[in-house]
């Protein structure tokens, strides 16, 4: 890692190194791909990559092209090896139950796993979990299963899921929250399972449509040429990326910022017009989405993420094939993941980009429609189409002006609510509720939206008429079928997105749905306004589409209980009929983990005193333990303040401080922390879970504050209002679950040893504090002074 990366000289060196690497890579690219990038980039002003590719092409200009194929045929860059179709699943006429004892023996001494894995260890908790899951699947029951760290949950559900699917010719869907777990399942656990049991098991990872490249959309952009530097940048990235990958999966390409992601969305299979018949036929079977979907149809196990799971059923099963058996791992995340997937968000800039994409008589989608029909349809038909497009162009132009007025009016309303104060570094989130809509100043927002609303309705009607005209032209046999097909699909895609904007803003201003939460957000330091909406509950969705429709749904996680009970998660997920089982961890926490709680630290309510105590405690503790510490915060602002205070003192001791949000990804930060000899890692919400650092690299975990949600957050505030006692019934259980997740970052293997420090005295002084402590495994607990903390840690770690 280059030191002092923020200094100008080092920045220049980094830039030079990146440029040299890109140059070397381009020198090895197929010549025709390189030439195509230069050809397309030649017409795009301000594309910063043009000079590099042009220079490489100039140096290689005497080479002969390495590929064959007609110009404009992109299938060659998505050149999948021919594969015979997998055999279809054949459902058993009568379901055959699994023998629970026989399945359990696989994970016992003398079973297949003990014979296959050299260092196999039988874990009673894992066997018990496997028994419960096998019984639930065989009997068609729902189950909530909590299993502590180290149990080995994945094999406990993969074994019965695989055996059930193969035995009965059916499929089982497995949903996870993180990509890391998906990768572990598909690349490690499932291959190990196949090898140990000798199974002919088919498994695939299936993602949402927007994650897959659409070759048809890509070819359409290539033919017309990119209009903006962002389009060209994404196009070049895709060209380069496809030299080493034929999966078409967005996860393999680096997209920077919202504009590049928006360009990708237009090139993805999320388009409603991306159908199996259209895409597979026109791309010669090279459509990534429909290839993986076909593989999913014949797979025994389909691995998805939580965001796709309920979003798919809520939108009519556009991705997942039919299934009756579902296992949800990392189930404590299902509510937040589904909330995010079913949320809506839009800015003024988003709408302007959408209208630019639509274009007018001489640009964008509408302009292309006139171009492709000009010479192919009768003059009278063309004149009528031209008039409709001219009308839509005028309406789109007026809409751009009026939508700007609406956003400005809403911004002024929010300014008035905060009484003219600057937004500052925290931003402003304002729920739009009935009381908001009765304020006198809200009337101006309504008037501004009424003007915009009427125009959007007219624009949607005009776009509908243009779409009908394209269909009529195609049915009459005029024009190139593929061009008309693309134009129609692009137009209907924009229509759908404009309609989505209209529907959500209409609800926010005038007609809120009772099961939705609406708010406006001014970003920190006043940088733009965002309108947002999210579901109030996901329990009804779970009930309607999962609990009532599926034969067996199994939820599993290390944290499903709060204060030893499943009641909270059962209520949130409407899991009234699910059986439950809670299993501990095989780790010996009493001998491996010291939980230390200082009793003389100021409470968080004393902000200055608490902050000073945290800084001093961390400096003394980290010096004593030579770093090796993960510090978990609930506030990024506090993290930054702490980093600034402790960084110089720890640097003097040779200890590096890594902080979340300093530019590097969470993965990169974690890798740097693992590889450093003496380091401290400061993290916020995403580091409370998913961090896996076994061994001495992580020996101390510090929890700065109890992880309560911010009560003013619009989603938290709206959901709190649905409880009689919001703190006891909602805020407290949520905080306990997150606290348990944070605690679980420390001990990751049977040989780990470490110290957990809680710098929040409320666990000692508040009545609810004991619930946090008793929710943890039975480790060694000590209460003492801050001054004694370094000595206690050193003694426990044998330093």
Description of the molecule:
The chain is an alpha/beta fold and 799 residues long. The chain has five domains: 1-70, no CATH class; 117-202 and 299-342 and 538-585, P-loop containing nucleotide triphosphate hydrolases (Rossmann fold, 3-Layer(aba) Sandwich), CATH 3.40.50.300; 210-284, no CATH class; 351-533, no CATH class; 589-796, 3-Layer(aba) Sandwich (Rossmann fold). Strands 3-4-2-5-10-1-11 form a seven-stranded parallel β-sheet, with helices on both faces. Strand 8 and strand 9 (529-535) form a beta hairpin. The radius of gyration is 29 Å and the shape is globular. The two termini are 29 Å apart.
Keywords:
799 residues; alpha/beta; Rossmann fold; 5 domains; seven-stranded parallel beta sheet; 32 helices
What is the secondary structure topology, with strand pairs?
Blueprint: H1 8-27, H2 31-41, H3 50-59, H4 100-104, H5 112-116, H6 124-139, E1 143-147, H7 153-168, E2 172-176, H8 179-197, E3 203-205, H9 215-224, H10 229-241, H11 257-267, H12 276-282, H13 288-297, E4 301-305, H14 306-314, E5 325-328, H15 334-341, E6 344-347, H16 348-358, H17 364-373, H18 379-417, E7 428-431, H19 434-437, H20 442-475, H21 481-509, E8 516-522, E9 529-535, H22 539-547, E10 552-557, H23 567-572, E11 579-583, H24 589-592, E12 593-598, H25 607-625, E13 629-632, H26 636-652, E14 656-659, H27 666-675, E15 679-683, E16 700-703, H28 714-720, H29 726-743, E17 754-758, H30 762-765, H31 769-774, E18 780-784, H32 789-796
Parallel strand pairs: 1-10, 1-11, 2-4, 2-5, 3-4, 5-10, 12-17, 12-18, 13-15, 13-16, 14-15, 16-17
Antiparallel strand pairs: 6-9, 7-8, 8-9
Helix pairs in contact: 1-3, 2-3, 2-10, 6-7, 7-8, 10-11, 14-15, 16-18, 16-21, 17-18, 17-21, 18-20, 20-21, 25-26, 25-32
